[in-house]
Design a protein that fits this description.
With about 475 residues, the chain is an alpha/beta fold. The protein folds into three domains: about 150 residues, 5'-nuclease (Rossmann fold, 3-Layer(aba) Sandwich), CATH 3.40.50; about 70 residues, Ribosomal Protein L25, Chain P (Beta Barrel), CATH 2.40.240; about 210 residues, Rossmann fold. Helices cover about 35% and strands about 20% of the residues. The protein is built from 16 helices and 18 strands. The protein has a six-stranded mixed β-sheet. Helix 2 packs across helix 3, helix 10 crosses helix 12 and helix 14 packs across helix 15. The radius of gyration is 26 Å and the shape is elongated. The two termini are about 50 Å apart.
């Protein structure tokens, strides 16, 4: 007979995801007293960690209610606070530490919080030999120490969107070279305005998503974008070619297939949410800005461009920055300034013309901090979220729900360059939204693969 499972949660699990209390299904969970101490210490402030600590404390308060010591020792039913939430299905019990432990892990400082949690887990193994005890922590070093001490330890997988980052929806699919011959009988073609539209029935509809990009290589290359998927029927249209000078977007042309698909999505007013992934130098920010400026200053589709990003330093933090919100964010917006310089360098009118254009552009681009997004609603805005791979799923939800009528949101990022602690390629908020939005008719996604920055940057990416 298999042992019943008891999961001991580390503090960082609850500070990362307060709903972790309800994500262990039929299994029981255990919280050491040290976890409650650390939650109490982390609850002050306006950071995401502080908010999560407070939410975890509220969940615990609801669970405990007016239970007495005897009821707490017997375990609190975890289903008590799940009314109305179908995603959180738990039927186990929550146990809280009610007694003192005298266990000590040899070679460790017993006063450190992590070591106290470790000691409590060791004591539980001795107290409940019939149970399988597992320590769940986002802290790699604590998991290593646990295994050294002979304790089963795992990462927290409740926020994991995919099993492997390589399974992430690419947004682009290559069609068979014999596509036209194979599907000629099921294919219908008609013109609508200046566009050629295709409609067909078949197995392709089972594997495609709205606004997915399709292409055929060979002597007669073909590029298309899916416009509709209904049952066994799929509709798609010819993709516009932004590689030619006559179809430049704010002076920018696509340099490869993925960039061309990206501009098709960025310039489509029917696509409200776009995710662009790719390594450094693939043109994510430049394409997003060029499309934004074209639709804001030329066509007037949006009132202004709002750009924001997570302020996670790569090296040592330089401390507090002086000035207004926009001035504080300026050092983080080096990518914006660099790309605006590229977009402005071909302006007509010489030095004076470039200066006037730069002034016009700066008045229509606003830099905003993520810290002040709660409660806001953006109407008819073109919003760019840079370095979105450093956002959690909850932060991403907070940002996307700020969008009002007429707003387009573009998320840029590289999931192989995550700087936020406890986030990985499979748990990043960017991965989360790519996976959740792929079925929506008004969203699009592209992974840019080729670097177009310079031959030096391309070579460095390959060999370093």
């Amino acid at each position: 007979m298999a042992k019943s499972h008891l999961f001991v949660l580390d503090t960082n699990v609850l500070m990362h995801d307060p709903t972790a209390l309800f994500r262990f299904e039929e299994h029981d969970i255990y919280l050491p007293m040290m976890v409650l101490e650390e939650l109490d210490a982390a609850k002050k402030g306006l950071s995401e960690v502080a908010r999560n600590a407070r939410q975890a404390s509220r969940f615990l308060d609801d669970l405990i209610g007016d239970a007495d010591r005897k009821a707490i020792e017997a375990g609190l039913l975890l289903s008590a606070t799940q009314q109305g939430n179908d995603e959180l299905i738990a039927s186990g019990r929550l146990f809280l530490q009610t007694g003192q432990t005298t266990e000590h892990i040899p070679g460790t400082n017993g006063d450190l919080p992590d070591n106290k949690i470790l000691s409590t887990t060791v004591a539980l193994e001795k107290q409940y030999p019939a149970k399988k005890i597992t320590l769940v922590s986002k802290d790699i070093n604590l998991r290593i120490k646990a295994r050294v001490a002979g304790i089963s330890a795992e990462d927290y997988y409740g926020d994991k969107t995919l099993d492997d980052a390589t399974l992430l929806y690419p947004g682009v699919e290559e069609l068979d070279a014999e596509f036209w011959e194979t599907h000629a009988k099921n294919l219908e073609c008609h013109k609508e305005s200046s566009e050629t539209l295709y409609s067909m029935k078949g197995p392709l509809a089972e594997t495609c998503y709205p606004n997915q990009c399709l292409y055929i290589d060979g002597e007669k290359p073909f590029e298309a974008i899916v416009t509709d998927v209904k049952g066994e029927t799929i509709s798609f249209r010819h993709a516009h070619d932004y590689r030619t000078e006559s179809h430049a977007v704010w002076g920018i042309n696509a340099r490869n297939r993925e960039q061309n698909f990206a501009l098709n999505l960025l310039m489509d007013p029917g696509v409200d949410f776009i995710t662009l992934l790719g390594m450094a130098g693939t043109g994510k920010t430049l394409l997003a800005l060029a499309a934004g400026l074209s639709q804001t200053l030329d066509s007037g589709l949006y009132q202004e461009i709002i750009m924001t990003r997570v302020t996670v330093p790569v090296g040592e933090d330089i401390g507090f920055l002086p000035g207004t919100e926009e001035e504080k964010m300026t050092p983080w917006m080096g990518a914006l300034m660099d790309n605006l310089e590229v977009l402005n360098q071909d302006s007509d009118g010489g030095e004076w013309g470039r200066a006037a254009t730069a002034d016009l552009i700066s008045n229509r681009i606003k830099i905003r901090s993520l810290n002040f997004m709660r409660g806001r609603t953006f109407l008819n805005r073109y919003i760019i979220i840079d370095e979105a791979q450093n956002l959690t799923a909850k932060q991403m939800k907070t940002l996307i729900t700020r969008a009002g009528p007429g707003t387009k949101m573009v998320c840029l990022g590289n999931i192989s360059q995550i700087d936020t602690p406890y986030l990985t390629e499979t748990t990043s908020g960017l991965t989360y939204v790519v996976n959740r939005f792929k079925d929506w008719d008004h969203s699009g996604h592209i992974i840019l693969k080729r670097g177009e920055r310079s031959r030096l940057a391309d070579f460095a990416s390959d060999v370093l």
